[in-house]
């Protein structure tokens, strides 16, 4: 292999699961200063597709490469907070910051045990947000106003959305520079994606013209099943190079590591799934989606 893992002409070309030549992506260069952050919303209204798992592990992987990362738990279930071992009760959360936008976001930022990774937690209180905020002026822009005060302190902000296309998700899309869509390699993966893309386009049109679709991430891929391979082929056929070359395999290590409250790159650093999230982090930097 030559530099950057690009095959030489006389090397046999190894194809990755998306059908493109396999690339490892170079180690991201060290940053000598931090911020302003690029904000990425992880979004899919379908439940259980790997949004939270990707938020946790991508955040930890980017932090591993020296990026300053802020993860926003934007789901009343609080799974991101729990997955990073952060308590969610009797502490300020993202909901408190949204209710009182004059409040200093630093009140709610919690350092995780992963160096370089901070989080703003959420809990069930956030489920009241849709009702509480509905009469607010510019109610779609509340999260953007909150995040404006912290972007200079981070290189990347990841927002873990809840599985819905309601007001909270619209707030996330309005605050974001980019959207990352995790898709489970299962039969119904593409159902609902058209509606998601339509929502993204509406937000681009009315609220946030610079919003970009950063890419679709295939998750829970099982290379041993024809079914998984067929679904991935369909995803690539439909979205072409918007599909990340990195694909996340299916493994029980994810539920195991979430229960322990640590990212997989700490729980099982040598596991292929840990390596896959590190590679996704490198791919995002390579694509220019993260500094
Ligand atoms: N690659 C994977 N292999 C196996 N299990 C996985 C993988 N990724 C996630 N899981 C598991 O699948 C379940 C759903 O994942 P996750 O919570 O990340 O999805 P989500 O999209 O955030 O769900 P929700 O829509 O409910 O917020 C979890 O139990 C998680 O541990
Ligand atoms: Mg989730």
Automatic annotation (TrEMBL):
Transmembrane segments: none annotated. Pfam families: AAA_31 (PF13614). This is Chromosome partitioning protein. CDD domains: ParAB_family. Gene3D superfamilies: P-loop containing nucleotide triphosphate hydrolases (3.40.50.300). Residues 38-212 form the AAA domain. Residues 1-22 are annotated as: Disordered. InterPro entries: AAA_dom (IPR025669), DNA_Partitioning_ATPase (IPR050678), P-loop_NTPase (IPR027417).
């Amino acid at each position: 292999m030559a530099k950057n893992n690009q095959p030489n002409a006389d090397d046999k070309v190894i194809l990755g699961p998306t059908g493109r030549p396999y690339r490892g992506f170079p180690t991201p260069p060290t940053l000598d200063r931090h911020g302003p952050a690029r904000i990425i919303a992880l979004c899919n209204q379908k439940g259980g597709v790997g949004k939270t798992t990707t938020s946790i592990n991508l955040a930890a992987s980017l932090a591993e490469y020296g990026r300053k990362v802020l993860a926003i738990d934007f789901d009343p279930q609080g799974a991101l907070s729990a997955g990073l071992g952060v308590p969610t009760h009797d502490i300020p959360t993202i909901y408190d910051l949204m209710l009182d936008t004059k409040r200093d976001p630093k009140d709610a930022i919690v350092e995780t045990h992963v160096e370089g990774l901070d989080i703003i937690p959420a809990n069930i209180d956030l489920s009241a947000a849709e009702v509480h905020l509905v009469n607010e002026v510019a109610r779609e822009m509340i999260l953007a106003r909150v995040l404006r005060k912290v972007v200079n302190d981070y290189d990347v902000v990841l927002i873990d959305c809840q599985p819905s296309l309601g007001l909270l998700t619209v707030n996330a899309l309005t605050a974001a520079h980019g959207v990352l869509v995790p898709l489970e390699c299962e039969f119904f993966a593409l159902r609902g994606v058209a509606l998601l893309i339509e929502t993204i386009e509406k937000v681009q049109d009315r609220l946030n013209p610079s919003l970009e679709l950063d890419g679709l991430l295939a998750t829970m891929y099982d290379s041993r099943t024809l079914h998984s391979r067929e679904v991935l082929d369909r995803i690539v056929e439909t979205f072409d190079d918007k599909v990340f070359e990195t694909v996340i395999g299916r493994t029980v290590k994810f539920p195991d590591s979430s229960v322990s409250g640590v990212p997989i790159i700490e729980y099982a650093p040598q596991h292929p799934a840990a390596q896959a999230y590190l590679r996704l982090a490198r791919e995002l930097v390579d694509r220019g989606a993260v500094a």
